[in-house]
Design goal:
Number of strands: 0
Protein name: Putative transposase
Biased composition (Basic residues): 108-117
InterPro entries: IS402-like_dom, Transposase_6_like
Biased composition (Low complexity): 119-141
Region (Disordered): 108-141
Number of helices: 5
Helix content: 40-55%
Length: 141
């Protein structure tokens, strides 16, 4: 068991909430616990699906389980049931981690010159702020 994997008590609480398989057949090679730990590892670290360690099963199987349960609402149902259990015992702490590294500007917003605005290359000096030189002083006298 790796550092971030589900503990036995966490698994005992989560296992009854998981959907049961419908079809009989060959037993699965990878346990649901391994696959769910793989999903948790991927969401915790933010790595690409293809980089999920092999101890959690093939990355395609981990991704397939995640997407299937996402589409049919299983993750939402598990979350709401765990939330209802935890609210009674005040077990969930709500911490948010917002990552802005994926916010990108449009490719055309990369420092192009703005059209329609004419900017002078240097400020125009007003006549009252003209500097006086020696020749100007002689001419004025």
């Amino acid at each position: 068991m790796a550092r971030g994997d589900l503990t036995d008590t966490q698994w005992a609480r989560l296992e009854p909430l998981l959907p049961r398989g419908q079809k009989p057949g060959r037993p699965p090679i990878w346990t649901r616990r391994q696959l769910i730990d793989g999903i948790r590892f991927r969401t915790r670290t933010g790595i690409p699906w293809r980089d999920v360690p092999e101890r959690y099963g093939p990355w395609a199987r981990v991704y397939d389980l995640f997407r299937r349960w996402q589409r049919d609402g299983t993750w939402h149902r598990i979350f709401t049931e765990l939330q209802a259990q935890a609210d009674a015992k005040d077990l969930i702490t709500w911490d948010l981690n917002i990552d802005s590294t994926v916010c990108r500007a449009h490719q055309h917003a990369a420092g192009a010159r703005k059209r329609g605005t004419c900017r002078p290359s240097r400020p125009v000096a007003s006549p009252s702020s003209r500097t006086t030189t020696a020749s100007d002083a002689r001419a004025a006298a």
